[in-house]
Batch of 4 targets.
Target 1
Amino acid sequence: MLLTGSYGGSSFFELLQQDFPHLLPFRHLQHLPPEAVQLSTAVPFATTILALRFADGVVVAGDRQATEGFEVSSRRIEKVYKADDHAVIAIAGAAGPCLEMVRLFQVEMEHYQKIEGEPLALDGKANKLAQMVKQNLPAAFQGLVVIPILAGYDLRLKQGRIFKYDLTGGRYEEHQFYATGSGGKEARSTLRKFFKPDLSRESAIRLALEALIDAADLDVGTAGPDLTRGIFPLVKLVTKEGVSDVEDAELRALSETILQTLKG
Amino acid sequence: MAMPFYVSPDQWMQDKAEYARKGIAKGKSIVALEYADGVLLTAENPSTSLNKISEIYDHIAFAGVGKYSEFENLRKAGIRYADVKGYAYSRQDVTTKSLANAYSEAIGTIFTRDPKPLEVEILLVSVGETPAETEMYHISFDGSITDHRQYAVIGGQAERIRAYLQEHYAPNLPLPAALFLSRRSLLAGYDRPPAEESPLEVGVLERQRPGRKFRRLSAAEIAQALATGAAQG
């Protein structure tokens, strides 16, 4: 079985397509009849995610709630993942296909790097993700939408970059910030108001939290920081040094300050 | 109708083995050594881009000698096998033993069926959470597989290098001392030490490293480690 495959390239996604199609995440969804159950109310959905540039790179954040119709299906879902040493992927949409796409994308990055001996350029990563989103289009028609944000540090241009996607795999670069998901619009208006180029690390994290808190205020699908249960948005930074997590203690302190100012 | 000449299986296998051995003997050897923090892989390699040592999966590394195109194909096949298995099941389910068996089977099948055997020998090594979980498999051109502890050697001068290591190997060496010992053992493989030493390619599997354990040492790191190792011993 080791040497029986017919695929000879460097992409894990294409390897699955050619030699192991049964392992592809989106395939089974393409055969559902169009009048099948309204899947969008029957499966968990992950909601608000955002990314913004700051002086050293990008901040990517997402709230922790997943909803199923009008129910909260999880308070601790993770929507922001390390894709490789210099890229982070955040996802909004139907949680199942979203998480599968993240897993596939993570393996794709690692696989390419091992086979070729060096990682894909950030543009290459963005295009690869576009191809995966495009494959999900039939499922999207049945309500299983997957909308990712890819953010990373471009080692060649020496700056953070943000890519957003549409259902058809369209890939667009955002030069300052972007937010999507059910509370994306609210988060975007906060970002639009307070974003400045070259923010410091602290102000950028604070702005990300403020945008998520505003989104949670107006969108039922999004949850703000939960001080009682100790659940905080997931915040990751990508800089020249790599991907790092923002600790809960820091997020708690910042959330308390922001919520205090809301009290008036 | 022309009758094909009868060649006894005995003769045929012997011829193939001799052919493969000749091909491999031309190449330089590779040493894998258990040291304090994991496993160290050292090869003499004048090229900086055509690697002989590389990463397969989280805790598994690969080294090949012989024909570059052939062991490069085996390396890629191993990465595909491991990544597909890790994706279909989980990362913990990618085991060195099953991959080593898959290599053994694939190389063995080519040796018996194809007119030309592979002119390669490979090493598959991995680290676990404790030193006792270290695994080293040597897979030969005919698919025969052996497992080793402490050290393993592949390539044309393997016999001599093994003899040298048998005499000089010590467990739990720090990295610089282990690298220094590896280089001395590689030099022991020559009849006469070469006038100019070939640059080394070095990779390590570090037990304590989070996630992917494999790391390639840069030329500067190698030079520094060798200097430290030489000063110590």
Target 2
Amino acid sequence: MEAIKMTGIVKCFGRVRANDGIDFTVNEQEIHCLLGENGTGKSTLMNILFGLYHQDEGEIFIHGKKAAISNPNDAYELGIGMVHQHFMLVNQLTVLENIIMGKEPGGLFLNKKKCEEQVSGLVEKFGFKINLQEKVENLSVGMRQRVEILKTLYRGADIVILDEPTAVLTPQEVDELFKILRQLKKDGKTIVFITHKLNETMALSDRITVLRKGKVVCRCNTSETDEKELAAKMVGRSVETVITKKGQIRGGVVMELKNVRLLKKAQETVSLTVHAGEILGIAGVDGNGQQELEALIIGNKKMKEGSLLINGTEARKMSVKERKKLGIGYIPSDRHKNAMIADFSIAENFLLGYQDKPQYNSHGFINYANLRKDAQEQADRFETKLAGLDQPIGQLSGGNQQKIILGRETSHDPSFMLVAQPVRGLDIGAIEKVHRTLLELKEQGKAILLISAELSDIMNLSDRIAVLYEGRVSALFENGEYTKEEIGLFMTGKSAGGKNS
Amino acid sequence: MADINNFLALMLQLSVPIVLGALCGTIAERGGIILLGVEGLMLIGAFAGVAGSFFTGSAFAGAVISVLAGAFAGWLYALFCLKWKAQQSVVGVGINLFASGITAVMLKAIWHTEGMSDSVEAFSSFTVPGLSKIPVIGALFYEQSPYLYLMILITAAAWILFYRTKYGLRYRAIGDQPYAVQTCGVPVNRYRYIAMMASGAIAGLAGSYLSLAQNNLFVTDMVAGRGFMGLAANIFGGWNPIGSLGAGMVFAVAQATRFYLTDFEIPSQIVQMLPYVVTLLILLFVGKRVKGPEALGKLVD
């Protein structure tokens, strides 16, 4: 029998039809991947199932019975639980408190013992290794995810929805998660797994539903398809999933960072060099000093010790503006906060940070003629889809925003590019473009520091890889020397043990 | 020894409005609502108390009316913040200005005077013979009002509610991660409305202490910064009821000291300034070290 059956689901946000007549069925006791790019309506569909949104049209059947789900409580009553992409946990509370929240056993007063008995039963049954008394803020991301899964199980879910659960995990944690999911399936649970990652879909699922632009474009058994076919279905055309790198012509040192402390608790300082014509990739789980590294190099955070040389000039005490004048191009990790002003026009955003350049300046007034010419040129170069240069940049898709920013930052001939999380939130087409651009820049002899949470990007693009763990470089090596699994180990704190560090 | 008891008794008297104000802040802000309007809520309470006592002829009835008026104002406050989604700091400042204005207008309407109301029935302080002679502890029974014991009771009740019951667990979680709690099926806004009304009620009570226990009349703007001091005490106390009580006492010491410094040749302006300077200093040095609720000001649908 079908655990979930959704028929003719339509959901509109304003004029956008996020779900456009979707039929979606999941069999009992299977792992079903809901595959699609960002913004294709996967999360919308599942949020409808979980009662966070209400469909405009369509019906839902759970275990064959018609269901009206108007809030998460209804969903839980029907045995549906959801693990969100952004964890819904309260950091200051313990694991136990988070799990029982909203469904505490007993009366008015909390009975710690009773709570613990109930939850530890579950923990043992499914083989989770977790300390119930630990505060959530002290847990790793992988552990937090387990708390989320436990929360759904504690509420008696037999259908568990996971929204992009691997986005924030190390390869080892992904393996652990998959083990847990398979165990859950064995115990009779039904799993819906939302993702845009093809390899995970192939590795984990029994059946697959692919969404594109709010519609189902493919339903199949995993054993009858392959990554290439799925990618083509997802994007609507064939894509090169792996871009090949050309050989490296390494030049002189362009950026040199010496003895810089990234995190207060870090035991060691960090030293890195980036040469002309190479990409140095920074791998690591988010929150291990990546943001600090980015902010220290560009100058958003004061450098208290160590030194930063850009083309041989000491930049430690320089302002952001002075540093950029030394030849830094910067793609910030937080696009909306640090790279653009959403309500300003594309042309104005193109000026951002370069307002002093003589070509954009005529006697203290903005030279719009030159600005528009350059902006249009770069927009064309990156095949940006826009209504016009006067359109607010906030109206563009993430991919097109990133293209404008790439155009701006590369058009002033930087010698060093600081590139942080360049593909975060982009669709496959835009990711491909960003990757190509970075490799082109490298071939032109730019030095590139690439900080990314996507390990596969780091491995595909970088010539050398440094792994950050708790604010220090836990390993540094030439690409190709180590496998994904080994890098994963360093990401979780295995020390370099004398190897190339 | 009598001197110490006198000083402590004075401190306790002065602590009541500050501690109650701090509790208002703790109760509202633990659930994620920025409560800058304590001052105004207290002023409304102070006025309602005097007006209530004037019309009923009973101080007790006046106090009850001040609590009801405070709860009503808290509910209005919540409507602005939660239903109409106004910026919470602005609502707070708005309530303070509104309270100052409306009480002055009503003062004129009822007593046809400006600045001060007529005297009304008020609570008189009492001293328990014998008990008040015990060193230190005796201060608790020397020239005190029922408000002091009520304050201790409310503090204890708030602490037990926060840390020992499931509703407290949920409510504390709302202040840190309201979406998480909502996803667990807890009606976040209902908790917040109730908390705001409780907070308003306590502020009303604090106001009536000023007008019906410390005085027997209403004076315009008679709260004189005690609401803000309470807020500072709430932060100093780490958004915790017991912490608020302790921090409120520290501020009360500064207030009480003021009365003892009049004998020295210090300009009275400087002496008057003392509690406010202490507030500033404490916020400066302690304020950044304590961690407040993570979701202050964040709304859910």
Target 3
Amino acid sequence: MTAALLQYLISGVTIGAIYALVGLGFSIIYNASKVINFAQGEFVMIGGMAAVFLVADGLPMVAALPLAVLLAVLVGIGLERVAIAPARGASVVTLIIITIGASILLRGTAQLVWDRNFHTLPGIGGGMPIEVLGATILPQAVLVICATMAIVAALFWFFKATRTGQAMLATSYDPTAALLVGIDTRRVLTLAFALAGGLGAIAGILITPIGMTYAGVGVMLGLKGFSAAMVGGLGSPMGAIAGGLVVGIAEALTAGYLSSAYKDAVAFVIILLVLVTRPSGLFGRRDGISL
Amino acid sequence: MLLTVSGLASHYGRIQALYQADFAVGAGELVALVGANGAGKTTLMRTLSGVMPASAGTIQFDGAEITRTTPARRVRLGISQVPEGRKLFGPMTVEENLRLGAHTRPAAELRETLAEQYELFPALAERRHQPAGTLSGGQQQMVAIARALMARPRLLLLDEPSMGLAPNLVDETFETIRRLCAAGTTIFLVEQNAFKALAIADRAYVLETGRTVLDGTGSELLAHERVKQAYLGL
């Protein structure tokens, strides 16, 4: 009984960590521009698919994985430069629609450049589960959780202690004041897309050995990450992490105790509940999003 | 002249807010520009900092034309602005706000410039780790001025520094401005409180419906019939 619960919690936290990384990407871009980037899931797909195909091409993991992340970063920068920056001054809704278009384009391109099949990557530890108090945990799941914690710590340090991170924060609080102290806010926006691309790709690589990847994997992961960011309060990094865990655990419990058929609906039920009862999210600023 | 503005005009979308601003600020001067609400003062300031584009006219700073340069570039050239309503980074601490003010400066001089601000505004030193948004209006104004000074400006632009402050704090703020000028900072001040601004200004201009219509020394304008009637309520 408790072993089963522990098992569900373990898988909930693992997938929740992935949602948190995707949600952080949403929050970072939202903070820099008030845009909700619906191509965030495609960064996840690019990370996983690029890693799979680079490894298949014979590259060692140590080279393939950073290259896959780099590719997603470049796609993020490209998306901002080519599609978002020229539309500066357009309404936020227009920009959001642009990101939806970009996500469709990226998905189609991935199907052409790579393929339409499901792929996986070898996980660490050879996929042999470790037994903990009657439940089992994959070494890859341990890696997912540890890597997410390390990335979150690095992000907090970046925003608190570096000049660039502080400039990004300042831009999110008051873009005009940021311009007045000499911050190049256009660069901040580009950087936000680069960061979000990198975070998404890392999430995509981490989850591939557990959940498989394919050209359309970003649709659901992107929506779950969006739920995570919304539940926690868009724009709040802490919120995205908490939201990711809430969505991940709720999903795992539903799959375990009810039926895995309802698993994907859970995230959206949670969003509805949060939007009705607490529209700015668990950690949201009061001036938060209004849709 | 350090700053020369000729025929400057600016639009909010299709609405023209500034028609013809002509003025100059010499190095070391304290120049004020007074005008009623809606005369175009804040538009002028936003155009000077580059946050809003100019639709006609030129801005020259230290002999170089800067009418089309980016806001960041203008800060690097030495123009710093204390915006209307202070516009602090509210959730960030006082010290983080000040550090951001030095965004365009080398990191090596940060410690020294920070110490200068805390010396100028001792009240801020005690509150350095407090979120700037939790400070009182007067203290927030100090943070806004200190943040602008962190960029080591050659020209300090002040937009309505007295706005929303209690009368004793208004006096204190103008006293600070006077002291900054005496210490060698060139200041261009835009104010609705014409009496206070003209009293401390070396020279001043009057802005009416987007046009500079009068100029003179601070005391000349204080004594000017039109100014007395329109702005001083005498």
Target 4
Amino acid sequence: MSAFMNPEQAVADRSAPTAQPRQRASDIRARGEPFTWALGGALGVGCLMIIGFLLMVFWNGVGTFVPKPIAVVTTTGGEITAGEATRTELYRPTPEVVAALSEAARQTIADRDGFAERTLYRIGNFDFYSEDFRWVSAFDVIDVKYPKDIVLVERTEWGPFIGHIESIAVDGEVIALDSVHDPRFAEAHAQARARWSQIQDIERHQIGAVNYRINQQRLTLRRIELKDGRDSQAYSETKRAADAETAELQSEYERLTEQAQALRQRNAGMTVTLEELGGREKTIGIDEIVRTYPANDLSSSEKISIYLSRWWEFLSDEPREANTEGGVMPAIFGTFAMTLLMVIAVAPFGVVTALYLREYATQGRLVAFVRISVNNLAGVPSIVYGVFGLGFFAYVLGGSIDQLFYPERLPNPTFGTGGLLWSALTLALLTVPVVIVATEEALSAVPRSMREGSLACGASKWQTIKYIVLPRALPGIMTGIILAMARGAGEVAPLMLVGVVKLAPELPVDGLFPYIHLERSFMHLGFHIYDVGFQSRNSEAGKPMVFVTTLLLIGLIFVMNISAIVVRNRLKKKFVGSQF
Amino acid sequence: MLHKTTIAAVLATTLLAGPVAAIDLDPNLKDYTPTSGVDGNLKSIGSDTLNNLMTLWAEGFKAQYPNVKIEIEGKGSSTAPPALIAGTAQFGPMSRPMRGGEIDNFEQKYGYKPTVIRTAVDALAVFVHKDNPIKCLTLDQVDAIFSKTRKRGLKDDIVTWGDVGLTGEWASMPISLYGRNSASGTYGYFKEAAMAEGDYKDSVKEQPGSSAVVQAVASDKGAIGYSGVGYKTADVRTVPLTTSEGGECFDATADNAYAGDYPITRFLYVYVNKNPGRAMDPLRAEFAKYVLSKQGQEAVIKDGYYPITAEVVKGDFEALGLN
């Protein structure tokens, strides 16, 4: 009631005799505590939501790589389902199903108001069953066992396998294993994997370099052909040189291919025969196995080592099986490189604009209009920036660059399509209002007396800005850049148009000249989340990966912000100390 | 052997639950044998239905030719023709055939028609929530559920599950509709095959991807939606379909799709820009060969679709001028 009193009444109340109840003695609006409560409450709710969200992501993300036990469930139909239990829910079975059940089971369901429980098992073995997950109703279950000898095999193809390792073959000699922990398997596996990484190294890096140089020869020749024509002397000379070089590279290529082929040949002799619980067998190469472990027979230290090795794989490997397995290294690198480039583009541009607006421009209608426009720019939907980036940067700018500098590669576009550079510039455009506004605020917070003091000592305007204003404003400017960075790293929608793709294992930085390839498409953690969560074949299997990737993206932004804050604090100390 | 100790007794009397047998490849499909001198960049722009499949092929192809760079973008079949015409993509995966207008635009620029490769078979599945007891739907009913114009001729609109014969708690439950966005080939094909080119109801919630449709259906009990069968999860089930009232119902399985019994079966295509007067460059030719090989078709199974037969491959090879 008192909240609606008018001020006069409140004053009258205050002067009234003390017989009145105490809380009516003053206007609630004048007292302030309720507002403190409301403000504190709002903060509390905000914090709770943020912490809740972070906890959810953290909990789900951290738990994903923990090795889970494998249950072998026998159901009333005599069927066996072996898999990791992923989640349990209540549901209402149809009357026909209930009617077919035993008396006891019906009673249990009736006691729960018609609800029954069911569990989703991740059964793996997609090559045998054509499904990855299966629901099992609790009333169907006869017994659940956790046999110690059952293994989970992570494969490079077809997803996980659940069953037994029947035998291995090393160079044609079949060895039947007598326990899950047989060292002979571990040894063979380590050998095969070592050869496999050797093959990867030869094929990816060494042959890659050779192919790159062959391609470079072809492009040089093509360039001269475009410039001087096929009949010119320059062309025939270059052609001769290029042919010789190419022939040499070709023999190098063949040598490397042979080397890889020999390793492959050795690995082909090393196979493993797996048997699922139904008795069906499958023989695969040992090098196709990423890791294998007896899920129900693990000590704590083994569990931890599997957990860590899965994290390491996730952080350092390339994605497999249409992004649902393997790692996200290219995406981490892409996100990081793009954000860094964006900061390099946005910081000088934003700061210079703000400096001019605040320090030099005559504060009039035009400047006010520009300022409003800048603020409005912050409200433009990000996808519109994406369209602009594609149309202007990629097609117009990039297209012209291709015409001028890369005519030998046409019709294949080099810069004339989405790529790292255009993505960074598009995001720079998207975040520049944040930097401008923050910088302007920071500049206006520098006391007028300091500027006047500097000018009075005979410093020029630029000297004043450089030595007095900017150092003071720097922490504020850095805050703006940090905000821009956080915004840019989490943005996905415009990137889908200007350079982010589902699969691009080539990093934009490598050992081949010119080392930094700004024109390349790249992978991005944000897009990876969208892709795995909403585009993958089995969304159920993708769900844990979504959480892990989200955790990683948040972590990456956190690390980048923290480092920016550390830099800011150092600058602050340095400049504040050196001033007066 | 190590495992016989614990569960051999159980195995002796029972079979492992495996309602779906593994799908077999046509034994006449050829193994892929890599050749030398293949490298360069490939870009594929097009269907979302084929997005994962293209990625799997790209991964497999890259394992053969480590230095080929392949980029894949999948935002809908309608994005494929413009990309092929502009030359920004070498492959245009589509989940529907190109329309006349799209082919004309292509022909205007290049003077010849784009070449089509049939890469996989998809039974376009109608998904419902896993607890939904619906046994079968006729195509007319599907039309009346999704379409406001009901071109297939069913007289009454269908808005609740009771309208298609469900009882109990389902009788009064409204049907909530999920579908794809209009850039999608799945959207176009479903419209043509199940709705006789009628119009979708305004209440169809258009999703940006096939997987999104399945997820939406999984979390909404009264839902129905359509998308490629490859995206099926344990939380949804496919509804068997029939062409006529009282006819036999066929579920979306490989056998029914091959036999032509499942009424909305389609090919998944990849379009390429191939000058009929010239041989294709080795990079694209090898990729096409890989897709149509045993390994490529194994990836089709891996992605949940059905592989094509050697007969179809032969036709594709002829169209591409390969041997």
